[in-house]
Every structure is written in structure tokens, then in C-alpha cells.
Amino acid sequence: MPDFKIAPSILSADFARLGEEVDNVLKSGADVVHFDVMDNHYVPNLTIGPLVCDALRKHGVTADIDVHLMVKPVDRIIPDFAAAGASYITFHPEASEHIDRTLQLIQGEGCKSGLVFNPATPLDVLKHVIDKVDIILLMSVNPGFGGQSFIPETLNKLREAREIIKASGRDIRLEIDGGVKVDNIREIAEAGADMFVAGSAVFGAKSDSDANTYDSVIKAFREELAKAKV
Q1: Number of domain units in the chain
Q2: At 188, is the secondary structure helix, strand, or coil?
Q3: Per-residue model confidence as pLDDT tens digits over 209-218
Q4: What's the CATH number where 126 sits?
Q5: Burial class (CB in 10 A: 0-12, 13-18, 19+), 230
Q6: Which position among 39, 66, 134, 177 bears the catalytic label?
Q7: Strand partners, 114
Q8: Annotated catalytic residue, options 36, 66, 134, 215
Q9: How confident is the model at residue 144 (pLDDT cuts 50, 70, 90)?
Q10: Is 194 assigned a catalytic role?
Q11: 31 is a catalytic site residue
């Protein structure tokens, strides 16, 4: 059984209580804290920066922080997120003038590096930089907003990405972001994903027993993943 990781996106959290929200979702069994960083330039929205990452670390969060940069250009802000405590930093190849250099920059800052592919972006660039990639993130919605529906064609792309990873012989995470729900996470896992970003599906659901925790949805994710034929 693969080492599945659940990575709730704080984009859907209550920002007035962010430290508490992150504490609760981790206590409920989540593995990774996912950051959706948008600049109102590469994508049509504006969200959070390195100060929020730093604040969560100072709050006491020790889990991996997975920073997804939807910004252009990317190189300037990478050292800031690394200094703020990011574990993974991923970016879109369209947002970098020199993809190989940006991957080297991330790793040079002590973080795991990755590329993000939009629904219509081919995976071709991977064959040239696979030796510098620690994680591949496939967008199963168009980037910029939470709460969108999963694009089914992404399942075929996941299978393609999984074959690329196998051929490389490297230990590379395959992450999915967008429209992940209890009723489709098993199918997504069977297509090859081992790390799952979920925003509204997690933060929009609280357990019946405690209004401040997310046990029920995380448990449901785990139960579905346990059934996955992989």
C-alpha cells in the first residue's frame, strides 16, 4: 500500500482562526498543510504569502508545509518561503523563464522541489528535469479558485505521470489538487496519486462529535484509500 498523504488546503480555512484550524485538521489525521499562493497576476486571485507560513511555524506547526506557487515570476519569492519554513515548493513551468534553474534554487534552499501542471499543460518538460523533481502536482481544476469540480481527464494524466515516475526510478510524490472528494479519492488513488489536496471537502465539513475537528471527513478519506487497488 502506498504511503498516502492527505494535504488540506488552508485556502478554505477560517483565516480568523488559522492556527487553530490547522491544529485541528492535523489532530484529525491530516499529514501535510497545503498553501495555495496566488498573486492576482498568474491567476485571477490574491491569497497568502511567506508571513503566513512563518506565523504557522511560530504557532507550533511541525507538519510538512506544501507551498504551491501560482505566481509569476517565481524565483524572487522562493527564498522567502524557504526561510519561512516551507517543506515543499512547487511552481508552474509557464511561470519560470528557466525551469531547471528554479528547481535548483528550491533544492538549494533546502526544500523539496516540484512542478505543477494545469489541466491542459502537457508533461513533456519532465523528461528534461526529472532528476531535479521531488514532487509532481497535477491540477484537476483550473487554478485560481477553490470549490471547483474535478476534471475527469486528469485521471489519464495521472496514469501518464505515474509511468514517467516509474521509468525514472526515483522516489517522486504524485500530488493531485482540485475537486478531491470522498466519493472520488479512491479512483484518483488508483490512477496513481499518492498525495491529495482537499480544501472545501475538508474545511467545509466538521465531525458531528466536535464542531472544531475534522475527524469524519479525514476518516472517510482513509477508508476509501484503504480500498484502492494499487
Answers
A1: 1
A2: helix
A3: 555 579 999 9
A4: 3.20.20.70
A5: middle
A6: 177
A7: 90, 135
A8: 36
A9: confident
A10: no
A11: no
Residue 208, pLDDT > 60, answer no
* 77 phi and psi angles, rounded to 5 deg: -95, -10
Q: Three-state DSSP class for 116?
A: strand
Q: How far apart are the first and last CA of the chain?
A: 7
Q: What pLDDT does residue 143 have? A: 79
Domain that holds residue 67: 5-227
| Contact indicator for 122, 153 with CB cutoff of 8 Å | no
Per-residue pLDDT, 210? 53
The CA-CA-CA angle for residues 228, 121, 47, to 5°, reads: 85
Cell numbers 512563518 correspond to 54
This prediction has a pTM of 0.95
How far, in Å, CA of 158 to CA of 137, rounded? 9
pLDDT tens per residue across span 20-59 = 999 999 999 999 999 999 999 999 899 999 999 999 999 9
Q: Across the chain, what does the average pLDDT equal?
A: 94
With a CB cutoff of 8 Å and minimum separation 6, the contacts of 229 are 190
Residues in a beta bridge with 149:
none
Q: Among all chains, which residue has been given the C-alpha cell 476534471? A: 151
Query: In 3-state terms, the chain is what percent helix, strand and coil (to 5)?
Result: 40, 20, 40
Q: Using CA atoms, how far apart are residues 83 and 33, in angstroms rounded to an integer?
A: 16
Q: At what angle do helices 50-59 and 18-27 cross, to 10 degrees?
A: 60
**Predicted pLDDT of residue 206:** 62
